[in-house]
TrEMBL record, chain A:
The lineage of its organism: Eukaryota, Metazoa, Chordata, Craniata, Vertebrata. The keyword Iron-sulfur does not apply. One of its GO terms (biological process) is regulation of transcription by RNA polymerase II. It is found in: Cytoplasm; Nucleus. GO terms for molecular function: transcription coactivator activity. One of its GO terms (cellular component) is ribonucleoprotein complex. This is Steroid receptor RNA activator 1. Residues 76-129, 234-323 are annotated as: Disordered. The chain crosses the membrane at residues 37-58. It comes from the Eukaryota. It comes from Sander lucioperca. Residues 79-97 have a biased composition (Pro residues). Residues 261-276, 282-297 have a biased composition (Low complexity).
Automatic annotation (TrEMBL), chain B:
Belongs to the SEC23/SEC24 family. SEC23 subfamily. It comes from Sander lucioperca. Keywords: Cytoplasm, Cytoplasmic vesicle, Endoplasmic reticulum, ER-Golgi transport, Membrane, Metal-binding, Protein transport, Transport, Zinc. It is found in: Cytoplasmic vesicle, COPII-coated vesicle membrane; Endoplasmic reticulum membrane; Cytoplasm, Cytosol. Its main location: membrane. The lineage of its organism: Eukaryota, Metazoa, Chordata, Craniata, Vertebrata. Residues 501-599 form the Sec23/Sec24 helical domain. Component of the coat protein complex II (COPII) which promotes the formation of transport vesicles from the endoplasmic reticulum (ER). The coat has two main functions, the physical deformation of the endoplasmic reticulum membrane into vesicles and the selection of cargo molecules for their transport to the Golgi complex. Gene3D superfamilies: beta-sandwich domain of Sec23/24, Sec23/Sec24 helical domain, Severin, von Willebrand factor, type A domain, Zn-finger domain of Sec23/24. The gene is sec23b. GO terms for cellular component: COPII vesicle coat; cytosol; endoplasmic reticulum exit site; endoplasmic reticulum membrane. CDD domains: Sec23-like, Sec23_C. This is Protein transport protein SEC23. One of its GO terms (biological process) is COPII-coated vesicle cargo loading. One of its GO terms (molecular function) is zinc ion binding. It is a peripheral membrane protein.
């Protein structure tokens, strides 16, 4: 259940693949497994003594009951009685209800991956709109044209066409499409760090799909964040007057959790839905507004203002000492 | 007074230091008699979220051959504004900016809680980080594709202003010019000819540029090493278009792989352009070097690559020459402050034995996998670029460690990923690549002779000064100053005994053992280790002469023999069943990890999951292998989940799917969850093995547990036997301890 990229061919005893979000999440350690059992009752040596006694007993043909007693004693110090012996191997495991109180471990807390799944499934009905995503990216590129070298712009344009082609020909998986949708929202609203972080998560989690064109998007993010605010205005204006402009603080950070409400999706007449079953663009659908998007706090990538230990927290230096 | 346990933990948390002895013997002879040397494990850049760096530079002792840093242990005369160096006793005036200090207004470096402090050096240029990819193209199509994607991905993880370069090699070596415009150009070198650094620089046209001074540096930047943000698109395409080495490989031959020359060009390029600047050469190989200098095996497939057997029979033709070649290169690289990583992915050996010094002397990583198309490689590679709580890379460059000691002690050696750069008054080492877990072992000597011991009541002081380039390109200096009391080994032996840190000592002795194993025969190393253990038991055990049953060890030493038992069986000292490359790989990681990880490598951790209670650590013993348990074993390199017989049958019967057996499902999930925690933080990514009773991969567990029950004593144990017998002739811990006691109490020994 940790596998992110199921299509990755796994090697011999290959560890599972973790998503970028899970790798960068810096939660406190829940359960550090670094303890060692203390050998025997008191020390190694007592344990050894026991062994020696057994050894002596066994070699001096002690009465068998004694043998049993001693080896019983030494092999299972303090251990609870074993389950019925393997003569009946398929006796079922203890049932949940009566022994539930003494279940071996508390049910494992829901990890970030697991808690994401319900969100994923609830999203499956919304289909990110290729038109909107591409138009945002193209408007960003247009904004850059005044300041950025022609060659770079045409290079970026080439890659944006590649993205569009892959999308329209159905070569992009749903998570990629969805994250690109979020990325374009972040770009539109000037959340450069968030856009950059989504680009990185796509490169890490879906490199095979995105490596050819993502570098163009990456450059676009880098160039637009350098632009003067007035050059950005056409980008931030919604393309469709009906569209609700995304407020900067409303854009969810985690791409997987974004639920692009249907009212955000301007459905162009020539739009070819990739998966007809998944498109429910009806205006009477209950729109899930961006402010209702669940944002798992664990998954919020630390923005610059969340960085701890700024220079103001520096301990007393010689300069401060002077006064 | 806190217990030693607490003291030790506090010292590790605050200063990243663990000493074998926390009271020091007052003469050299007494120190020798303690068997385990006065030594420490030191983690120079231990992550300290609670320690923000200070924005000024350290105050140094004015004596030219001392230059120790002002620290909390110095005596300060606040009225006269003078401080006394606690190493050379020089009295130093404070610099003018400290004019305002007083007892109530002290700078941070005088406060006891800042025994470790980090300074940001404000002057000097802050050169960008440099990453030079050196890529083998003699790979299978699928492997090359996966590697190309990983490299493209890494461009997104690098800081935008980092410089990046690309060298590819097969039969020829190509240095790629990275320009934003025009057609892709590259310089081609023959893979058979050894070139001097000067020749390489001439051929790349670097010398001409260097003559024109400052301008020159700019020229280099635009040709072979470019800022990522400027060339990312072209480099992505360049990588995407990389083809397998076009030279045909005849039947029965290995591809010709010029790893030696490729590295020589990489090292020469950096040497000529960015000496003494943090840089990382990242070498990706899918097979052994087969031609030119540094060749490890010929191209005839019928001649297999050297094995331990060949080496023992002195039958490894290229071993000495290749090792010498790579050692020379590693030293050159270390002098310039550049580190070299090796990412070797192949099913057969790739020559790590010969090439290991490249990483071991420069602090680079070695990663070993079966294929570039595995999550093991992909995720390990991603983690090279992992970031800390501040969003900075967990890597630092160009570290220089200086160790200053008070006059009663001196450093006699160190083991870790570093290279020695000469001793005058203070020992100094270079650690070109360094990260928060890089841990060095330092061994000390007590100077005072037996007839003139260190007087009682004093303290020995050691200061570690680590200068390095932070990944945000700042130059920083971290200073750790620690002190320990001297003790008279005659009258205070019990105090010294209780100050023993058995975990640190086990790791420190193990590092010595691994160091010896590099040059000595395996059995000799084991004998040396055994002798040390017996001497330690003779010194500190309580017993009646010639009565093994009377033997006892105090709490502070009780686990030590067990660590030695597992160390003897570990792949760091046993080469059986490991190729020379694997042994090099295991040892590489052992001599750089911190104490916790090193101990896991020596004695793997075993946890048991059952219906009888919460998960608990259990003995690494065959008696712990029970039918109704799930075991999780962590050996650092492998993570094994083992389902006992009954559990495996229940799982096969599908009880976990039934609602009324929800608790069984939870039981199955618990070890997976804990394994996930380990997998998320470990570097390199371990192998992950999910097995069960009778499974072929259960051998990973069976080979690690103490064989307390074997086929030899199986019948004697009869029906009441619990646990799993191991088919082995290895001695068990019990037998080992038995012998140890006999030898320790023997009057003839």
């Amino acid at each position: 259940q940790w596998l992110v990229d199921l299509y990755i061919e796994r090697g011999w005893n290959d560890p599972p693949q973790f998503s970028y979000g899970l790798q960068t999440a810096r939660g406190p350690h829940r359960n550090l497994l670094n303890k060692r059992a203390a050998p025997g009752i008191l020390t190694t040596f007592l344990y050894i003594y026991i062994y020696i006694y057994i050894y002596i007993y066994l070699h001096h043909s002690a009465p068998s009951c004694l043998k049993q007693l001693v080896s019983d004693w030494s092999s299972g110090v303090g251990a609870p009685p074993p389950t019925p012996p393997s003569s009946n191997p398929l006796s079922p495991p203890p049932r949940a209800r009566p022994p539930l109180g003494c279940v071996a471990t508390p049910p494992p807390p829901l990890g970030p991956m697991r808690s994401q799944r319900p969100a994923d499934s609830s999203q499956s009905e919304s289909e990110p709109d290729v038109e909107r995503v591409v138009s945002v990216l193209n408007r960003a590129l247009a904004a850059c044209r005044q300041t950025v070298k022609d060659q770079v712009c045409s290079d970026v344009a080439k890659r944006l066409r590649l993205l569009e082609d892959s999308w329209r020909s159905g070569r992009l998986s749903l998570p990629v499409r969805r994250r690109m949708d979020t990325l374009s929202l972040a770009l539109q609203s000037g959340q450069w760090d968030s856009a950059d972080e989504i680009h990185r998560s796509l490169m890490v989690d879906h490199v095979t799909e995105v490596s050819q064109w993502m570098v163009g998007v990456k450059r676009l993010i880098a160039e637009t964040r350098k632009l003067n605010p007035e050059l950005l205005e056409p980008l931030q204006k919604p393309a469709d007057p009906d569209q609700v402009p995304a407020e900067p603080d409303q854009v969810p950070v985690d791409p997987d959790q974004v639920h692009a409400g249907p009212d955000q999706v301007p459905v162009g007449p020539d739009q070819v839905p990739v998966d007809p079953d998944q498109v429910h663009a009806g205006p009477d659908q209950v729109p899930v507004g961006p402010d209702q998007v669940p944002v798992d706090p664990d998954q919020v990538h630390a923005g610059p203002d969340q960085v701890p230990a700024g220079p103001d927290q520096v301990p007393v230096g010689p300069d401060q000492v002077q006064d | 007074m806190a217990t030693y346990q607490e003291f030790i933990q506090q010292n590790e948390d605050r200063d990243g230091v663990r000493f074998s002895w926390n009271l020091w013997p007052s003469s050299r002879l007494e120190a020798t008699r303690l068997v385990v040397p006065v030594s420490c494990l030191f983690t120079p850049l231990k992550e300290r979220p609670d320690l923000p760096p200070v924005q000024y530079e350290p105050v140094l002792c004015s004596r030219a051959n001392c230059k120790a840093v002002l620290n909390p242990l110095c005596q300060v005369d606040f009225r006269a504004k003078i401080w006394a160096c606690n190493f050379c006793f020089q009295r130093n005036p404070f610099p003018p900016s400290y004019a305002g200090i007083s007892e109530v207004n002290q700078p941070a470096e005088l406060m006891p809680q800042f025994s470790t402090i980090e300074y940001i050096v404000q002057r000097g240029p802050t050169p960008p980080l440099i990453f030079l990819y050196v890529v083998d193209t003699c790979l299978e199509e699928e492997d090359l594709q996966a590697l190309k994607e990983s490299l493209q991905m890494s461009l997104s993880l690098l800081p935008p202003n980092a410089l990046v370069g690309l060298i590819t090699f097969g039969r020829m070596v190509q240095v790629h010019e990275l320009s934003c415009e025009g057609i892709a150009k590259s310089y081609v070198f023959r893979g058979t000819k050894d070139l001097s650094s000067k020749q390489i620089q001439e051929m790349l046209g670097l010398t001409k540029a260097a003559a024109s001074g400052q301008q020159g540096v700019f020229v280099f930047i635009t040709r072979f090493l470019q800022p990522v943000h400027r060339v990312d698109m072209n480099l992505t395409d360049l990588l995407g278009e990389l083809q397998r080495d076009p030279w045909p490989v005849p039947q029965g031959k290995r591809p010709l792989r010029s790893t030696g020359v490729a590295l020589s060009v990489a090292v020469g390029l950096l040497e000529g352009t960015f000496p003494n600047t943090g840089a990382r050469v990242m070498l990706f190989i899918g097979g052994p070097p087969t031609q030119g200098p540094g060749m490890v095996v010929g191209d005839e497939l019928k001649t297999p690559i050297r094995s331990w057997h060949d080496i023992q029979k002195d039958n490894a033709r290229h071993l000495k020459k290749a090792t010498k070649y790579y050692e020379a290169m590693a030293n050159r690289s270390a002098v310039n402050g550049h580190c070299i990583d090796i990412y070797a992915c192949a099913l057969d050996q790739t020559g790590l034995l010969e090439m290991k010094c490249l990483s071991n002397l420069t602090g680079g990583h070695i990663v070993m996998g079966d294929s570039f198309n595995t999550s093991l490689f992909k995720q390990t590679f991603q983690r090279v670029f992992s970031k800390d709580y501040n969003g900075d890379f967990r890597m630092a460059f160009g570290g220089v460690l200086e160790v200053k000691t008070s006059r009663e002690v001196k450093v006699c050696g160190t083991i870790g990923p570093l290279s020695f750069t000469g001793i005058h008054h203070n020992a100094q080492w270079k650690v070109c690549g360094i990260n928060p877990s890089t841990t060095l072992a330092l061994y000390f000597e007590v100077v005072n002779q037996h007839n003139a011991p260190v007087p009682q009541g004093g303290r020995g002081v050691i200061q570690f000064v680590t200068q390095y380039q932070h990944s945000n390109t700042q130059r920083r200096i971290r200073v750790t100053t620690i002190a320990r009391n001297w003790a008279d080994a005659q009258s205070q032996i019990q105090h010294i005994e209780s100050s023993f840190d058995q975990e640190a000592s086990a790791v420190l002795m193990a590092r010595l053992g691994v160091f010896r194993a590099e040059s000595e025969e395996g059995p000799d190393v084991l004998r040396w280790l055994d002798r040390q253990l017996i001497r330690l038991c003779q010194k500190f055990g309580q017993f009646n002469k010639d009565d093994p049953t009377s033997f006892k060890l105090s709490e502070s030493l009780s686990l030590y023999p067990q660590f030695m038992f597992h160390l003897r069986r570990s792949p760091f000292l046993q080469v059986f069943n490991n190729s020379p490359d694997e042994s090099s790989y295991y040892r590489h990681h052992f001599v750089r990890q911190d104490l916790t990880q090193s101990l896991i490598m020596i004695q793997p951790i075993l946890y048991s999951y059952s219906f009888h209670g919460p998960p608990e650590p259990v003995l690494l013993d065959s008696s712990s292998i029970l039918p109704d348990r799930i075991l999780l074993m962590d050996t650092f390199f492998q993570l094994v989940i083992y389902h006992g017989e009954t559990i495996a049958q229940w799982r096969k019967a599908g009880y976990q799917e039934m609602a009324e057996y929800e608790n069984f499902k939870q039981l199955l999930l618990a070890p997976l969850d804990d394994a996930q925690e380990i997998l998320q933080t470990r570097f390199p990514m371990p192998r992950y093995i999910d097995t069960e009773h009778g499974g072929s991969q259960a051998r990973f567990l069976l080979s690690k547990v103490n064989p307390s029950q074997t086929h030899n004593n199986l019948y004697a144990w009869g029906q009441v036997l619990r646990g799993a017998p191991i088919l082995t002739d290895d001695v068990s811990l019990q037998v080992f301890m038995d012998h140890l006691k006999k030898l320790a109490v023997s009057s003839s020994a």
